[in-house]
Specification:
The protein has 17 helices and 17 strands. The protein has 421 residues and is of the alpha/beta class. 36% of the residues are buried.
Length: 421
């Protein structure tokens, strides 16, 4: 998995971003921290000493700071009254005080270097990523083909068949890491990208001696469902802090963006599809800064549309052409259902008798008139565990316990849909 470290810039020019932006950022950080050494300032900005020393010399020349002493061989500085006035004015314009940003060009090059369309994927990679799931060979082959393409996927089929679990296993296929910047500079404005709720930081040694403005992460996975709105796909301007937050697709670059329960979002399907016609086709997206200026970013992400609705009723033919992979995920066979049930019991350290499982399958399909959805083993075992906790006894997978779990879980057969043959 080992990544090559990114070279850290040794001077302001090497950062690729404007000198003025770095100086303003450093002054805000100094003001808010009262007193810092040059090394501590570099730590907060994720910059090496060569860069912060250059900024310090500018501050001293412009009388924005004064030296209070030495610490571990570096100057300790505070903002002068002139520096404090300047810093408070800057904070009224923009309150970002995090790590220094990278340039838009550097961000674009780094995304292209880790493009999802350049990945080599084998059957072994799928087997490793999907090993907790029970899938037939046809589904595995179709998923493998879709992922090699690096393009988007429709996963459709009845509710409870494991579409979301499949989608959420996709990034585990990639046995490598990617660099995510804390922030990107665009037209002298800050766009934050790194999100600890989305990006899982790696402990790879390459991160220790690299440009600290980048975080070495596992490939990102962003999941959104019914809460999705149009604003989440554009730059989100933080009114209080006055800087921009990257939209979902930018956070997901080099990874996967999963649209769960597609067709049930706050954003109408046709609105979303129209918004992404060009990105899906050209793999480029266009975002708009608060002042109205547009800029281009890579759209290098596998978008997975997971739905239990008919894709043909959600999108027109022109859009469906731009999603070349359409994979139906159907109910489990009896053998698959039994295997899923066995794996779920193993995970919970519960004994599982195959004769009991076969009786459960007959009860679900013949008595309850239900299909064998992949989610039922987990949900029915939950029922038994909850009941056992209430009764203060160890959970047991008996025929009676499972039949009672079914009665608690399913609607009466007369009110539920009939099982498929």
């Amino acid at each position: 998995m080992g990544e090559i470290p990114l070279s850290a810039p040794q001077d302001v020019k090497g950062t690729g971003v404007s000198r003025g932006l770095l100086e303003d950022l450093a002054l805000k950080i100094l003001y808010l921290n009262s007193e810092l050494s040059i090394a501590e300032l570099g730590e907060r900005m994720c910059l090496d000493m060569g860069v912060t020393e250059e900024i310090f010399q500018f501050f001293r020349k412009e009388q924005l700071c004064e030296v209070k002493g030495m610490s571990a061989g570096t100057h300790r500085i505070v903002a002068t009254s002139q520096g404090k006035t300047r810093a408070t004015d800057l904070l009224k314009i923009n309150q970002y005080t995090g790590p220094a940003p990278v340039s838009l060009m550097d961000y674009t090059l780094r995304v292209r270097a880790k493009s999802v369309q350049q990945m080599q994927i084998s059957a072994q990679d799928l087997g490793r990523a999907f090993h907790p799931l029970v899938l037939d060979e046809d589904i595995c082959n179709r998923l493998g083909t879709a992922l090699v393409s690096g393009s988007s996927i429709f996963l459709y089929g009845p509710a409870g068949t494991g579409k979301t679990s499949l989608a959420c296993s996709i990034t585990a296929i990639y046995n490598d890491l990617t660099w995510i910047p804390y922030a990107v500079e665009v037209e002298n404005q800050i766009v934050t990208v790194f999100d600890p709720g989305v990006h899982r930081e790696s402990r790879d040694p390459a991160a220790e001696n690299s440009d600290r403005r980048w975080v070495l992460c596992h490939r990102p996975q962003v999941v959104t469902g019914g809460e999705l709105s149009a604003s989440m796909l554009d730059l989100q301007y933080n009114e209080a802090c006055r800087y921009c937050i990257a939209p979902l697709q930018m956070k997901a670059n080099t990874g996967a963006l999963i649209m769960d329960d597609f067709g049930r979002q706050r954003m109408r399907p046709e609105e979303l599809l129209n918004r992404w016609m060009t990105p899906l086709d050209r793999r480029l997206d266009f975002l708009t800064l608060p002042g109205g200026k547009k800029f281009e970013i890579p759209f290098d992400v596998i978008v997975v549309f997971a739905t239990n609705l008919d894709p043909a009723e959600l999108a027109d033919e022109a859009f469906l052409r731009r999603i070349p992979n359409k994979i139906k995920v159907d109910y489990a066979t009896s053998a698959q259902f039994a295997e899923i049930f066995r794996k779920e019991c193993e995970k919970r350290l519960l004994d599982c008798d195959d004769r009991v499982v076969q009786q459960l399958i007959r009860f679900i399909t013949q008595e309850m008139k239900q299909p064998l959805a992949q989610c039922y083993p987990r949900d029915l075992i939950n029922q038994i565990v909850w009941s056992s906790a209430y009764l203060n006894r160890e959970p047991q997978m008996t025929v009676n316990a499972l039949e009672q779990a079914c009665r608690n879980y399913f609607l009466p057969a007369a009110k539920s849909r009939a099982a498929t043959p």
